């Protein structure tokens, strides 16, 4: 393979003499974009792409842009843009330019830029880099069918490339439907991928001349992508590895316009824990679903970065959650692994547990967490007299950080006793013993777990009742459960007043 640095110099010298100035400017203030199609929900792979673009831009003082690529109108889903923006904002990936944040580079929705594409396709037609194609869908289908029969790569045979100007004028005058194709050249294109390193590929070996403008007048992804990236001043393109094979095609389009291409980096596949490819059809890859199921934003962001790399890893260091500011400061694109990012569901749960713990240590965030849990309790148990004071809820949250990974777990049957009075089986209750226990507990000043445990053991000996039997009865009285936290631990969590009130309620 030729020396890529030399090839890059040669390739870029074909464009603009001021390449050195351009390279300096894009290093100082990079402009990157996340360009999804509005075809549905934001999935984990899309969030990964948006996040890494955001971190790359912010780590270098650059601009992060959201661009909506809706050239395929048949797949457009109403409301998907608003949902996408909501998911990005929830994750803390806020864009600087894009829909509702217009600037000199807008509009940022491709269907609003059709006149721009029309002007630029004329330039390629005029310089001979593109041509009108009048082939029918029927003919194209025959080409595909015949290629499959002959075990060849199905591709367009470039028939209309050879039409004369007069033939083209006549067909246009007759109103024959057409698309506009780009003339591929059969030369190897080289570029240095920021993640994968040196890439070389001759796209013409496996493809016929690609369509730039479809029959409906809308541009294809390849054409609109190049035009928009150039006009919006995009300096670096970070996208999924599935687009890597198309990059050499894009470089040819840049050359046809005489433009300097941006630098390219392709993010590896995200795969399941067993190595199978992550699919959009899976029910657990929507960002919206993660949010609804109690995953916190920073937990999901760290889950992605821990799985996909981009950061220095200290050997022996355990999992440490990083804030968005820390991720921005520490991000290094040369540390993104080129190997598939393998997801580990247990890692996500641990990240969420650590995020709950982190929020509880912050005054403002802990207030929000308490408010959220209070609302969740009220929604789950609407018909009950609830024990949901802020102090009680926060105490439970602090206690639960090593036991739960989502706050939703705290409204499950297992932990319901902490908020509502339990339903108990009175057949197993000794009221006389409970009356003595109430008198005993009322004398205790320090209602801590260890002192309670010692007190209950002494009480069982003094009243000649087996300790396990006493614990079983008290567990039923306090929680209505047959198993769960220790009885002394329960009493400490509920507090003296609530514990005594529950015992007295049973006696009554």
Would you kindly provide a written description of the structure presented here, covering whatever features stand out?
- This protein has 508 residues and is mainly alpha-helical.
- Helix content is 46%, strand content 8%.
- The protein has helices spanning 4-13, 19-28, 44-59, 80-91, 114-126, 137-149, 165-173, 221-231, 247-257, 287-292, 297-308, 324-330, 345-360, 363-380, 390-400, 431-442, 449-462, 467-479, 487-494, 496-507; strands at residues 31-34, 63-66, 130-133, 179-182, 189-193, 197-201, 211-213, 236-240, 263-267, 270-271, 341-342.
- The strands form 5 sheets. A 3-stranded antiparallel β-sheet has the order 3-4-7. A two-stranded parallel sheet has the order 1-2. Strands 5-6 form a two-stranded antiparallel sheet.
- It starts with a helix and ends with a helix.
- The model is unreliable at 1-20 (pLDDT under 50).
Q: Which key phrases capture this entry?
A:
about 500 residues, mainly alpha, three-stranded antiparallel beta sheet, two-stranded parallel sheet, 20 helices, disordered N terminus
């Amino acid at each position: 393979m030729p020396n890529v640095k030399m090839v890059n110099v040669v390739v870029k010298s074909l464009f603009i003499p001021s390449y050195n100035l351009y390279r300096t400017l894009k290093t100082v203030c990079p402009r990157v974009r996340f360009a999804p199609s509005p075809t549905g929900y934001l999935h984990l792979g899309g969030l990964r792409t948006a996040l890494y673009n955001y971190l790359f831009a912010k780590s270098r003082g650059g601009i992060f842009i959201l661009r909506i690529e809706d050239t395929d109108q048949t797949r457009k889903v109403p409301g998907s843009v608003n949902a996408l923006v909501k998911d990005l904002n929830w994750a803390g990936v806020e864009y600087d330019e894009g829909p509702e944040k217009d600037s000199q580079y807008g509009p940022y929705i491709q269907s609003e830029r059709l006149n721009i594409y029309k002007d630029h396709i004329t330039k390629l037609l005029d310089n001979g880099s593109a041509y009108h194609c009048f082939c029918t869908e029927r003919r194209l289908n025959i080409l595909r069918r015949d290629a499959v029969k002959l075990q060849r790569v199905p591709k367009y045979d470039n028939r209309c490339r050879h039409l004369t100007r007069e033939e083209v004028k006549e067909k246009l005058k007759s109103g024959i439907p057409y698309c506009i194709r780009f003339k591929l050249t059969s030369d190897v294109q080289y570029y240095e991928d920021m993640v994968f390193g040196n890439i070389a590929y001759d796209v013409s070996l496996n493809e016929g001349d690609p369509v730039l403008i479809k029959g409906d007048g809308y541009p294809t992804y390849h054409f609109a992508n190049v035009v928009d990236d150039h006009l919006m001043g995009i300096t670096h393109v970070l996208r999924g590895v599935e687009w890597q094979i198309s990059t050499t095609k894009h470089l040819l389009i840049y050359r046809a316009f005489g433009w300097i291409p941006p630098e390219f980096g392709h993010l590896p596949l995200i795969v399941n824990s067993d190595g199978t490819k992550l699919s959009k059809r899976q029910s657990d890859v929507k960002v919206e679903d993660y949010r609804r199921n109690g995953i916190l934003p920073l937990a999901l962001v760290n889950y992605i970065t821990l799985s996909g790399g981009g950061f220095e890893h200290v050997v022996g260091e355990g999992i440490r959650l990083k804030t968005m500011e820390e991720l921005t400061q520490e991000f290094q694109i040369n540390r993104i692994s080129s190997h598939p990012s393998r997801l580990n569901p247990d890692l996500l749960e641990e990240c969420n547990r650590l995020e709950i713990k982190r929020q509880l240590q912050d005054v403002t965030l802990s207030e929000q967490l308490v408010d959220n849990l209070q609302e969740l309790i009220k929604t789950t148990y609407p018909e009950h007299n609830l024990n949901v004071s802020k102090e009680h809820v926060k105490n439970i949250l602090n206690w639960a950080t090593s036991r739960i990974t989502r706050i939703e777990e705290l409204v499950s049957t297992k932990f319901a006793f902490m908020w509502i009075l339990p339903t108990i089986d009175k057949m197993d209750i000794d009221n006389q013993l409970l009356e003595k226990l109430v008198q005993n507990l009322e004398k205790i000043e320090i209602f801590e777990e260890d002192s309670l445990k010692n007190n209950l053991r002494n009480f069982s000996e003094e009243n000649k009742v087996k300790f396990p039997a006493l614990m079983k009865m008290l567990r039923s009285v306090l929680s209505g459960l047959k198993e769960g936290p220790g009885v002394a631990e329960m009493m400490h969590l509920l507090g003296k007043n609530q514990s005594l009130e529950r015992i007295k309620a049973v006696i009554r």
